[in-house]
C-alpha cells in the first residue's frame, strides 16, 4: 500500500490575482534618453504606436507582474516585474498623465535582458487605476514585512522564562485602606447629608440666652424720668428747664441727701438769662 505524502507548503505555487486589466494599451518605441531629465511624451509620435493589446497587472505572491498580451490569442508580448528592493519598473512622463515608460525584461539564453518602451492609455481614469494597482501591491509588501518582523519579535520575547525558580519569592505590598472604598470628599459629604435628611428628625435648637445687662454705677446720677419730647414754639427755654428741675427734685432721699459740696453750684439765673 502506497502512502500519500502531504505536499510541502514551499513547493505550492502561489495563485495569481489580477489587480488591474484594460483592453486598450498602446506601446511606443521610444528613443534612448540623452540626458538625466525625465521622458516627455511629446517627443514620441503618439498617433503611431508600435503595438496595441491588453494590459494586466497580476499579483503572484510577493511579485507583481505587468503583462502585455494579445487581445485575441493572449500571446505574451512583453512583461515587467515589480519586486521589493528593486527599482520601480514604471516611470511617468513629465508632460502627460496618460503615458509612462515601462522597463520590460526577459530571460534570453540564460541571460536577463531588459529594454525601455513607452505605454499609453486612451482615458485618464485608466492611467490612475494602473498606478493605484501598483501602489496597493507595494502596501501589501510593506504590511507583510511588518507582520513578519512583529512575529520574529514575539518569538524572541516569548522564549523568555518568567517562571519562579527554586527559592524565589514574590513580595506584594498592599496598602491597607481599612475596608473602605475611596470616595471624593465632595460626594461623601453629599451622601452624608442625604442620609441625615432621611434618617434623622429635624430638631429646633433654642435661641441663645440674652446677654446680661450691665448694672448702672452706684454713684451715677439718675436722669430725669420724663424729658420733653419736643420743643414748643410758644414756650421758652426757661419753662422747659424748670419743669425738668421740679421733677428731678422729687427723686428718692438718696439723691436729696447729697451734700452741697457734691452738687456743683450752678448759676441758674445766669443760665436762664443767657
Automatic annotation (TrEMBL):
Residues 263-274 have a biased composition (Acidic residues). Signal peptide: none annotated. Residues 205-215 have a biased composition (Pro residues). InterPro entries: NECAP_PHear (IPR012466), PH-like_dom_sf (IPR011993). Residues 191-274 are annotated as: Disordered. Residues 16-175 form the NECAP PHear domain. One of its GO terms (cellular component) is clathrin vesicle coat. GO terms for biological process: endocytosis. Pfam families: DUF1681. SUPFAM superfamilies: PH domain-like. Transmembrane segments: none annotated. This is Adaptin ear-binding coat-associated protein 1 NECAP-1.
Amino acid at each position: 500500500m502506497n502512502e500519500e505524502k502531504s505536499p510541502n507548503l514551499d513547493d505550492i505555487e502561489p495563485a495569481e490575482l489580477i489587480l488591474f486589466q484594460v483592453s486598450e494599451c498602446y506601446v511606443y518605441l521610444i528613443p534612448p534618453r540623452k540626458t538625466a531629465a525625465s521622458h516627455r511624451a511629446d517627443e514620441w509620435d503618439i498617433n503611431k504606436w508600435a503595438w496595441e493589446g491588453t494590459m494586466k497587472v497580476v499579483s503572484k505572491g510577493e511579485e507583481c507582474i505587468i503583462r502585455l498580451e494579445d487581445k485575441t490569442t493572449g500571446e505574451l508580448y512583453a512583461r515587467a516585474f515589480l519586486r521589493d528592493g528593486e527599482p520601480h519598473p514604471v516611470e511617468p512622463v513629465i508632460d502627460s498623465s496618460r503615458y509612462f515608460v515601462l522597463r520590460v525584461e526577459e530571460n534570453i539564453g540564460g541571460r536577463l535582458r531588459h529594454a525601455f518602451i513607452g505605454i499609453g492609455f486612451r482615458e485618464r481614469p485608466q492611467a490612475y487605476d494602473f498606478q493605484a494597482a501598483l501602489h496597493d501591491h507595494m502596501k501589501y509588501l510593506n504590511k507583510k514585512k511588518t507582520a513578519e518582523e512583529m512575529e520574529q519579535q514575539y518569538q524572541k520575547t516569548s522564549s523568555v522564562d518568567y517562571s519562579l525558580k527554586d527559592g524565589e519569592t514574590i513580595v506584594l505590598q498592599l496598602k491597607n485602606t481599612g475596608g473602605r472604598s475611596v470616595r471624593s470628599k465632595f460626594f461623601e459629604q453629599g451622601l452624608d447629608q442625604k442620609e441625615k435628611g432621611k434618617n434623622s428628625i429635624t430638631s429646633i435648637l433654642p435661641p441663645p440666652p440674652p446677654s446680661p445687662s450691665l448694672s448702672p454705677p452706684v454713684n451715677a446720677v439718675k436722669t430725669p424720668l420724663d424729658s420733653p419730647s419736643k420743643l414748643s414754639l410758644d414756650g421758652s427755654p426757661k419753662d422747659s428747664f424748670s419743669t425738668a428741675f421740679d421733677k428731678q427734685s422729687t427723686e428718692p432721699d438718696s439723691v436729696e441727701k447729697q451734700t452741697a459740696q457734691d452738687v456743683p453750684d450752678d448759676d441758674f439765673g445766669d443760665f436762664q438769662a443767657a
